[in-house]
Design a protein that fits this description.
With about 400 residues, the chain is mainly α. The chain has 19 helices and 2 strands.
Length: about 400
């Protein structure tokens, strides 16, 4: 007896494994190796192309964007091999964050099959909720007993700030807070409210990433402003925002924020490291604008002579240092495509608001916490394919 498994189900299973791998399987002590992960990634992309059967069936933007990514990565892999003598396999491992963007092909196929543009958004919302619960549980346990119950999490994603444990929320949670705020404010979804609140609590009191707080909170406020129809509501919204700003200044929060970015404050180390990274990576880009230092697997180059420069800290400057001008055909089509979609009034106000706040998220994170960083790149194809699917569905309805 043979059990026939649909191609679509195989793709969904492969994508779920890769998305879970993006969370490091919640640091619960198991996972897959980097080599297996890269193989699964490439296999999933190739398999999805065969499932499409006809390349012309692939959505136009997805097809041409994937081709741009492949060409850019190929050129950088070849350059790295010629300049540094590095093997192709090593270069492909380093290029994994960019290769993840090719998952836009299988994700687009699955979304077309299930006819639900938010299929992967809902899945990632579940992943984010699991991660947030683990983070809160760890925060409480550490405060009570000083214990770390997830050792992998401690090794990779935990630090100390202001006298208590600090745990990062990447790769999905920041955008999911914005998305849940959109669902709560615009779509009037009551289920989204606790998800948004839990996320914001973790962001402000546990993760304490200054830039992330500013980006997420400002976009939520902008989402609220965009959702208001009448002039009176806009006036009230602006007044509430003004009151919040006045309260922040009266409580001295402005001084706390400014001191956190000072090279003399309690967080001077991170500020000094970021300033060093900006200078170092900009010099790397200017020395070789076309290729940067490319896909070399050498920490003395990738992190600077002092070992404190991180590409994820400085966003687009770090990406320019890594791939030079070849980052442009990888990043700019995402920005341009989403920006272009936001101008189509025929897709409806609610859809336009989601696309606009997503564009703002990508724009605001260009300087740091960029979606192409190694920690967050797994979310980029989901975001791109989902919004493209939503836009196409709305366009066809019209």
């Amino acid at each position: 007896m043979y059990i026939k498994v649909k191609n679509e189900n195989i793709l969904i299973l492969l994508l779920v494994v890769l998305l879970l791998d993006g969370t490091k399987f919640f640091y619960l002590g198991f996972g897959i190796s980097r080599t297996v992960s890269l193989f699964l990634l490439l296999f999933t992309v190739v398999y999805s192309i065969f499932v499409y059967k006809n390349i012309s069936a692939i959505p136009k933007f997805v097809k041409y964007y994937s081709l741009a990514v492949i060409c850019s990565v190929f050129c950088c892999v070849m350059y790295t091999g010629i300049r540094y003598g590095q093997s192709i396999s090593t270069s492909l491992h380093v290029a994994r964050p960019y290769l993840l963007l090719l998952l836009v092909i299988p994700i687009s196929y699955v979304l077309g099959y299930v006819q639900k543009w938010d299929f992967f958004f809902n899945l990632i919302n579940i992943f984010s909720l699991i991660w947030i619960i683990l983070v809160i549980a760890q925060y409480i346990l550490y405060g009570i007993s000083g214990r770390i119950f997830v050792q992998g999490l401690y090794q990779s994603n935990v630090g100390m700030r202001n006298g208590h444990i600090r745990i990062g929320l990447w790769p999905y949670c920041h955008y999911m807070m914005i998305y849940n705020a959109y669902r709560a404010i615009v779509k009037k979804s009551k289920k989204a409210i606790p998800l948004m609140i839990l996320g914001l609590v973790c962001l402000v009191f546990i993760e304490e990433t200054r830039v992330a707080e500013a980006i997420v909170l400002s976009i939520i406020v902008l989402c609220w402003l965009l959702s208001n129809d009448s002039d009176l509501k806009r006036i009230i919204a602006v007044m509430v925002l003004a009151v919040a700003v006045v309260l922040a200044f009266s409580l001295g929060l402005d001084e706390m924020i400014l001191s956190s970015f000072s090279i003399e404050g309690d967080n001077a180390g991170s500020t000094i490291a970021r300033l060093y990274a900006i200078g170092y990576f900009w010099d790397c880009f200017m020395q070789n604008p076309l290729f940067g230092f490319s896909l070399i697997n050498d920490s003395t180059i990738a992190n600077g002579p002092l070992g404190i420069a991180w590409i994820s800290d400085v966003g687009i400057i770090g990406q320019l240092a890594r791939l030079g001008l070849f980052i442009i055909p990888i990043f700019m089509p995402i920005i341009i495509h989403i920006f272009r979609m936001s101008f189509n009034k025929e897709i409806g106000k609610e859809t336009r608001i989601l696309i606009i706040i997503t564009f703002l998220y990508l724009l605001f994170t260009t300087g740091t916490l960029m979606i192409l960083d190694a920690e967050r790149a797994i979310f980029a194809p989901v975001l791109l394919a989902s919004l493209d699917s939503l836009y196409n569905q709305k366009t066809l309805q019209e």
